[in-house]
Write a structure and sequence with these properties.
183 residues, six-stranded antiparallel beta barrel, 2 helices, 27% helix
């Protein structure tokens, strides 16, 4: 009978050890995976500068405030030699201000806002930058025309502001973001 009790206790001890081991080993494995994940995280700092390019022509003649715009990342954006935003990634933006060219030689104005890009691990990254462009202002020309041609000189129209496709724009990250780098 004592032998049976000893066997039973031994069996219970073995079962308890197996249960404990089954909980401990996955925890160790998870801890090792978590530490390898931290090694693959790169921090994109707030204020990091990179270049995007316009995809389409943007004109003060056709653009309206709030219109969506698309840009592309000009070169891979890297942190510690590892890419966090790939070249060619689409960047979202909007028209911040658009005023058509006016009479009396007044040039059009155009302001754009770059808003966000996507990191290589598909996170939205806020950006900041404004690039405004003034159309050729013909006010001086208009004044001269009035002197030479009388009141009809005021019919001279200024040029619309235009940003051509492929125009480079410096942008800056507007937040710090941790990006997972794939092996």
């Amino acid at each position: 009978m004592q032998k049976t009790m000893r066997s039973s206790r031994l069996f219970q001890t073995v079962v308890m050890l197996l249960v404990l081991v089954s909980f401990i080993i996955p925890g160790i494995a998870q801890h090792q995976q978590d530490s390898s994940k931290t090694e693959n995280l790169k921090v994109v700092p707030d204020g990091m500068e990179f270049t995007v390019v316009t995809v389409d022509e943007i004109s003060s003649k056709t653009a309206a405030e709030g219109d969506p715009l698309t840009f592309k990342v000009a070169e891979d954006v890297k942190v510690d030699g590892l890419t966090v935003i790939a070249k060619g990634t689409l960047v979202k933006g909007t028209v911040a201000q658009a005023k058509k060219a006016g009479m009396m030689g007044r040039g059009g104005t155009l302001g754009i806002r770059v808003e966000s890009a996507t990191t290589i691990d598909n996170q939205k990254l806020k950006l900041r930058s404004t690039k405004g462009k003034e159309g050729d202002d013909k006010t001086g020309t208009t004044v001269a025309l009035v002197v030479l041609f009388g009141p009809l000189g005021f019919l001279k129209k200024g040029k619309n502001a235009v940003i051509k496709p492929g125009t480079e724009i410096k942008v800056y990250t507007d937040e710090e973001k941790r990006v997972a780098i794939a092996n």
